[in-house]
Amino acid sequence: MRTPVFELHIQPMFRATDQEHMTFAVDLWDFDSVVANADDILSRIDGAGMPPDSEGGPWPQEWIALFRRWHESGHKRLQLGTAAFAFGQTSSATTVTATGTFPAAGFTGWLQLESQTDSAKTYVLYYEAPDAPAPGTPAAFTLKERYRATDTRSVFVRDSGGVQQLH
């Protein structure tokens, strides 16, 4: 069974109402804050029936089990990657390309749309480490994200080096 990952499995379970009602004690969308308070969060969602019905209702048992599995397996999270980025445009498509080498064997990665406004869109480059160290050498990668050429918004990419504008 795959090890749960904070950004993929845990963070999305915290609803906006959960975040709003818990800001006095913990930032539920911040990895470090959730890790520091994981025992308390687990006791509240499991034993205390939190959140209350008036605030969205308790989590389903599957969510509680997933949070427990994430907590007990060491709080896995994604890493920001590093790559060379390129922006290309044809008459039919716009392409954002990331080219690089993973930090170790067994890693995977992808470009993910992080945010968008009327004037800009921002992608983030994520790496996911394997659940157990993999033998071999790090693999080279080329990751692409395509969208319609009629989309003329500015394009930004966030990686371990910060945010850079491509277009």
Architecture overview:
- The chain has helices at residues 6-10, 16-22, 31-36, 38-46, 61-72, and strands spanning 79-80, 84-89, 93-101, 108-116, 120-128, 140-148, 154-159, 162-165.
- The protein is of the alpha+beta class.
- It has 2 domains: 6-72, no CATH class; 79-165.
- The strands form 2 sheets. Strands 1, 4, 5, 7 and 8 form a 5-stranded mixed beta sheet that branches. The chain has a 3-stranded antiparallel beta sheet with strand order 2-3-6, with no helix packed on it.
- A hairpin with a 3-residue loop joins strand 2 and strand 3.
- The chain starts with 5 loop residues before the first helix and ends with a strand.
Compact description:
The protein contains 5 helices and 8 strands, in the order H-H-H-H-H-E-E-E-E-E-E-E-E. It is globular and about 55 Å long.
Topology readout:
Blueprint: H1 6-10, H2 16-22, H3 31-36, H4 38-46, H5 61-72, E1 79-80, E2 84-89, E3 93-101, E4 108-116, E5 120-128, E6 140-148, E7 154-159, E8 162-165
Parallel strand pairs: 5-7
Antiparallel strand pairs: 1-5, 2-3, 3-6, 4-5, 7-8
Q: What overall form do the CA principal axes indicate?
A: globular
Total count of domains: 2
How many DSSP helices?
5
Low-pLDDT residue intervals, each spanning 5 or more residues: none
Q: What is the percent of helical residues?
A: 10-25%
The major beta sheet can be summarized as: 5 strands, mixed
Mean pLDDT: 93
Radius of gyration: 19 Å
Structural class: alpha+beta
Strand content: 25-35%
Order of helices and strands: HHHHHEEEEEEEE
* Termini gap: 40 Å
Number of strands: 8
